[in-house]
Write a structure and sequence with these properties.
The protein is built from 14 helices and 22 strands. With about 450 residues, it is an alpha/beta fold.
């Protein structure tokens, strides 16, 4: 096919419309390129429930095996289950998913052995260049002896590993509604939660890559409306929603009210620090709530701030030896999970924390949710840098604020802060603001928006 790889090879993964932008022929070439760039003698692959995923995954395996590499196929899995296999088996891996994107999309998340990410600067550019070369000059020469392709079921081992990382012995009986969004949570939750004192109320557990009920993106408020309603109807203790490939989890309390991912980050950070004797580094990106570094310091840990994006989190996890990292996008990273992100492990921590005491979830998370946030507000602008310069000019003379440029521009005062970041792919500026109270937050948010939008 005449593919424009610049449109589908992104900063962290491959993603595009099937078959318009890529197909099984291209997947086979990606498989050959992946094993050449990683130098692998064996790899592991997995895929989600999208209609195109089995074929693309098998084509990738064919391309790898043709180069003499043995392929272990774990079949249907969540993205963090593929990371588990990569870590436990010590193999580079490839996961076929487009996460929360619509049904016609698919993609590949790739990692080196031990779930180390493959991104633009860590192999993805070379994979793209090799594939482009083969598209122009013909497929690569097959190895004298092709590799084998074998199947392996890792679901039970994945679930056992997660449960070994959280003390679940003291959980009281809980009623939990889980919205899998017709994604891979419907495959993994029953096995991971098996044997726990939970009354599980499943929603949309049927694997269906056409997403007939709602998009599998729980960060969009429209996609958790069903969950919120069901939690209230059932009188449940909490609700949990997973995205399409089940690597992110989103939580609502007993009232059906959303729990901020920053509050979940702070809660899990406190628990991970307790597991490690009150010592350790916790990574958080710069748009998480100030509650996160405050809680970390109160618990004896060291907070470390990073740019937004999983490649930055994972790099800082590795550099600092951090025990845990969290993003406001509901990605949660664990040292004991090869520094990879797993929403399922974060969900187990929430269940253990709630089930280990008698109060409701709303009271438990209140101690971790101390500020009022705006959420992310996107504005289309003609000139990103000009608008950032205007914001800087407005605040630089003020003695009561500090400015920093770690990721876009952050303006911070004693009781509030805001960050404005340019999108890398669209003419947008992204605003996040936070303050001690609603009125201050609204004032700060509106002042920033007036400068952003001119």
């Amino acid at each position: 096919m005449a593919a424009d790889l610049s449109q589908i090879v992104k900063a962290y993964d491959v993603r595009g419309v099937v078959p318009d932008q890529w197909d099984e022929t291209l997947a086979e070439l990606f498989g050959a390129a992946f094993v050449q760039v990683t130098g692998a003698r064996a790899i592991v692959t997995g895929h989600d429930m999208r209609p195109s995923s089995p074929g693309l995954s098998r084509a990738f395996a064919r391309g790898a095996a043709a180069r003499g590499v043995d392929v272990t196929e774990i079949g249907l899995c969540s993205t963090d289950q593929l990371y588990y296999a990569s870590g436990a088996l010590g193999l580079p891996g490839a996961m076929f998913t487009a996460s929360h994107n619509p049904a016609r999309y698919n993609g590949i998340k790739m990692c080196r052995a031990g779930a180390a990410p493959v991104g633009q600067d860590t192999g993805l550019t070379q994979i793209r260049e090799l594939t482009e070369g083969w598209l122009e000059s013909g497929a690569p020469q097959p190895a004298a002896r092709p590799g084998t392709v074998t199947g392996r079921d890792t679901l039970e081992d994945y679930a056992a590993h997660l449960r070994s990382l959280v003390d679940l012995t003291a959980i009281r009986p809980l009623k939990v509604v889980v919205d899998a969004g017709n994604g891979m949570g419907g495959h993994t939750v029953p096995t991971v939660f098996a044997g726990l004192p939970l009354t599980l109320v499943p929603m949309y557990f049927e694997l269906d890559g056409t997403f007939p009920n709602h998009e599998a993106n729980p960060l969009d408020p429209a996609n958790i409306v069903d969950l919120q309603k069901r939690v209230r109807e059932e009188g449940a203790d909490l609700g949990i929603a997973f995205d399409g490939d089940a690597d992110r989890c989103f939580v609502v309390d007993e009232h059906g009210d959303p729990v901020s991912p920053s509050a979940i980050t702070a809660l899990v950070a406190a628990r991970e620090l307790a597991r490690n004797g009150g010592h350790g580094t916790i990574i958080h990106n710069l748009i998480t709530s100030r509650s996160v570094p405050e809680v970390v310091e109160e618990q004896g840990g060291t907070p470390q701030r990073t740019r937004v994006g999983h490649s930055f989190i994972k790099a800082e996890m590795a550099r600092t030896g951090a025990i845990f990292g969290g993003e406001h996008s509901a990605h949660y990273y664990f040292k004991d999970f090869w520094n990879a992100d797993t929403g399922m492990l974060a969900a187990l921590h929430v269940l253990a924390a709630l089930g280990g005491q008698d109060g409701p979830l709303s009271a438990l998370v209140a101690q971790y949710d101390r500020y009022v946030g705006s959420g992310e507000i996107n504005s289309t602008v003609a000139d990103q840098q000009a608008r950032l310069a205007a914001i800087r000019a407005a605040y630089a003379p003020r003695e009561d604020v500090t400015l920093d440029d770690l990721d876009g521009l952050t303006v911070a005062a004693a009781d509030w802060w805001f960050n404005v970041r340019p999108s890398n792919t669209e003419p947008l500026l992204r605003l996040n603001a936070e303050a001690r109270d609603e009125a201050t937050m609204a004032k700060v948010r509106d002042e920033a928006l007036s400068l952003i939008r001119g």
